[in-house]
Design goal:
By secondary structure, the protein is of the alpha+beta class. Helices cover 13% and strands 21% of the residues.
Length: 112
C-alpha cells in the first residue's frame, strides 16, 4: 500500500516468477510476459490479509474438475505450498492430484 500510495509502484502491480533453480524473481510495476505459462486471470482481492480471491473452479491442465459448484474462495500465497480448505474439498483435490509423499512423481503431476 505504501509503494502504491507514493506512486512508486507503476500500475499498482507486482509479480513473482518462481523456479526450483534459484533464478526466481519479483517484478515491481507489472509482469514479464515471457514468463507466463497461461493467460492472466485478474481477480479482485476479497480479504487482503491473506490474498483471498474467488475462483470458478480448479483446473488440471486447463480442464475444469467441477470441484467448486458455485465458486470457491481461495488464498493466493507465494510463501507456502500448504493446501488448506474444507476437508472434503482438500481430500478430493489431493486424491485427484495423486502426489506421492516423497514427491517421486513430481514431473508427471498435472498443472493446476
Amino acid at each position: 500500500d505504501d509503494l502504491a500510495g507514493k506512486g512508486a509502484l507503476p500500475n499498482g502491480q507486482f509479480s513473482f516468477y518462481l523456479t526450483d533453480g534459484g533464478d526466481s524473481e519479483v517484478t515491481f510495476g507489472g509482469y514479464r510476459s515471457d514468463y507466463l505459462a497461461s493467460d492472466i486471470v485478474w481477480a479482485p482481492v476479497k480479504v487482503q490479509s491473506w490474498w483471498q480471491v474467488g475462483i470458478e473452479d480448479i483446473t488440471f491442465d486447463n480442464t475444469p474438475k467441477q470441484l467448486c459448484s458455485g465458486g470457491c474462495q481461495v488464498a493466493v500465497d507465494t510463501g507456502t505450498s500448504m493446501l488448506a480448505g474444507p476437508s472434503d474439498l482438500v481430500d478430493k483435490l489431493s486424491n485427484m492430484v495423486g502426489a506421492k509423499d516423497d514427491c517421486s512423481n513430481f514431473d508427471s503431476l498435472p498443472k493446476l
